[in-house]
Structure formats: structure tokens, C-alpha cells
Amino acid sequence: MDILDRQQEGPIVYMNRTHTPSFWTKFIELRETDRLQHLKKMVEVRHESGQAEEEQTGWSWRELLNSFFGIKITGDGYKGTRKSPDSYNLYNRSPDFRNNYGWSIALDGSDYSALKHSGIGVYLVNLTAGSMMAPHLNPTATEYGIVLRGTGRIQIVFPNGTSAMDAKVTEGDVFWVPRYLAFCQIASRAGPFEFFGFTTSAHKNRPQFLVGANSLLHALHGPELAAAFGTTEERIKRVLDGQREAVILPSPVATPTGRREEMMILETMEEEEMIMGF
């Protein structure tokens, strides 16, 4: 938290820390007409983003019904149009990713032709007890999920870092994650956590992971990343190299120990899980 809270600036920060004016200081220094124009752009971008998300979601539901179930939405309701395509058994497909803590499968239009017409992708994830799908975001699609077995938690955060949802889910529950919002799925210690779902794009989703050995932060490692967090390169490197696993991360008891920092992190995670009832 110390690293994440150090930088209080917006998307553009000063490399020279001798003078770092606050956002509101810079905003007040603008001319009145420029301030109004800036606020107008912020409102328009927010409005357009919301409209695009609504249109994309509505279109995906219509195409899903049409392509998978032979149902077409008309002004009079639902109407059958054609025979459904052949089924596809996800359990017969080898996982796209697997380690000691779980596996995941993602299906898109290049794997199953019916998805090209529906405009959606399908996925299946299985996490071992206490494991977590590393925090990540979807750059191209909204994600919908259905819990098939087990219990776990779904955590989602807004782009500004505040919590959008932190909920316990169990078999039969449905959840959804808007595009661009960071999130993770965590299995309870009671047993495996398995969920299935779809994304609103038939192209490869290519989720961007925020932590782990394949974190996108590794590609940005350097003085620029350190300046963005308001800390040193050495400290950023220790943080990035702290997690050796990728995509699916182990529970605290399965994580290698040995360093004082790691032990402190594990103790904190265990305390939080006890508070949440896991």
C-alpha cells in the first residue's frame, strides 16, 4: 500500500520531483474557457463509454440467442429461425494454461465456428482450494461467469482503485465484469472452485495480468515505472520479482517462504481470509 499510495498525480507525472504541482493547482491555472472545455470532454468521454458498453452488451445477448439456440428477437418476442450448431465439449479440450494451482480454457471463433456468428468467446476455469486467478483486466470484452461448483470470492475494482465489488459466490451464482475493470477470482479453502462463462468478443481476449511472472508491469520495468509510483527502481524490482508464478497464483500456505517481506504478506492475507470467513 505504501508504494500504491505514494503517487498522487494523474496520468501525467513529473520526472523531476523538485516541483510537482497538484492536479487542482494545474487545473486552476487554466483559463476559464479551457477549464470548461476540459470538463466537457471528461463528461463526453464518460457518456460515450457508457453508451458503447450498453450497445455491446445488448448486441451480444441477441447474437447469443440467435446463434446458439436458434432464437431470433423480434418485435413480437422470440422466434425460432434455424437448427442449432453441433455442440462442443470444453472438457475434451486440453487446458490453454495449467500449473499446480489450477487450469483455464478459452474458446474463440478460431476454435469453434459458431462463435464467429455469435460474436462471443467461451471460457472454463478451475482453481484449487485457496488459489487465485491473478488480478487482470479484459481489454476487448465484458466477461460473464457462472459458478459450476465450489465457493469463492469475486473482487472487482474501478479504474480509480476503489472497490466495485467484493462478493462471496457459490454454485449457481452469476457474475459479470465490465471491460477495462481489474478483477480476480479467489477459491475458498474448502475445495476447488470452478466457473464457466463467456466474453462479448469472438476474438482472442488476451487478458492483461497486473501481477505475476507474466505481469504487463515487467514490460514497463525501468525508471519510468519507478517515477510513476514515486519510488526507486530497486524497490519496484523487488515487488515485481516477488511473485514467481503466473496467471493462477497459490494460496499463502503453498507460497515459498524465506524472506521477511514474504512472511508479512502471507500473514496479512491469512488475517483477511479469516475475517471474510474463509
From TrEMBL:
<dbReference type="InterPro" id="IPR006045">
    <property type="entry name" value="Cupin_1"/>
</dbReference>
<dbReference type="InterPro" id="IPR011051">
    <property type="entry name" value="RmlC_Cupin_sf"/>
</dbReference>
<dbReference type="InterPro" id="IPR050253">
    <property type="entry name" value="Seed_Storage-Functional"/>
</dbReference>
<dbReference type="Pfam" id="PF00190">
    <property type="entry name" value="Cupin_1"/>
</dbReference>
<keyword id="KW-0732">Signal</keyword>
<protein>
    <recommendedName>
        <fullName>Cupin type-1 domain-containing protein</fullName>
    </recommendedName>
</protein>
<dbReference type="InterPro" id="IPR014710">
    <property type="entry name" value="RmlC-like_jellyroll"/>
</dbReference>
<feature type="domain" description="Cupin type-1">
    <location>
        <begin position="88"/>
        <end position="237"/>
    </location>
</feature>
